[in-house]
Specification:
The chain is of the alpha+beta class and 156 residues long. Helices cover 30% and strands 35% of the residues. The chain has one domain: Thiol Ester Dehydrase, Chain A, CATH 3.10.129.10. It has 5 helices and 6 strands; from the N terminus they run ααββααββαββ. The longest helix has 13 residues. It comes from Mucilaginibacter corticis.
Length: 156
């Protein structure tokens, strides 16, 4: 379904799995080329050590690359499905303050994915996400493997 950046941002803001973990979509860039996400620390997502629960951090990073790629290709007229196929997460420092990350998808990455979708029907690639605390230190480093399938691709 083709939707606007604004509707997508608000939809993700009130989506219960994100909302109740205090995950806030700050901004979705024009043409779905990027997103800024903040994880607010609260009583609902603190762990025993008074840092942000690792599951909350993982939940914050999980949906955004597939969402962006899906909307980019849907707006281009493709009929695609998009998933997070796998992820690898490294917790480097405790999330003692609110956390934030930005994702950006370059035109080169889009062109590469489009070429692969048109020639092979499915695109699978890992994309990095670094999550920062308020001091600008990397607390979490994550690799998110994205799976896209062109539903209109016909093998020859």
């Amino acid at each position: 379904m083709v939707i606007s950046e604004r509707l997508s941002k608000w939809g993700m803001r009130i989506y219960p799995p994100l909302f109740f973990q205090r995950i806030w979509v700050v901004k979705i860039d024009k043409r779905f080329r990027g997103v800024t996400v903040r994880i607010n620390k609260s009583i609902f997502n603190r762990n025993y050590n008074n840092s942000i629960f690792g599951g909350t951090i993982f939940s914050a990073a999980d949906p955004f690359f597939p969402l962006l790629f899906h909307q980019i290709f849907t707006h281009k007229g493709y009929n695609v499905i998009a998933w997070s196929k796998s992820s690898e997460i490294q917790f480097l420092k405790p999330g003692l303050t609110k956390l934030q990350f930005k994702i950006h998808i370059s035109e080169e990455e889009i062109a590469e994915a489009e070429h692969i979708l048109n020639t092979g029907g499915k695109y699978i690639k890992s994309h990095p996400i670094d999550i920062y605390n308020t001091s600008g230190e990397v607390c979490v480093s994550l690799m998110n493997e994205v799976y896209l399938r062109n539903l209109n691709f016909i093998e020859k």
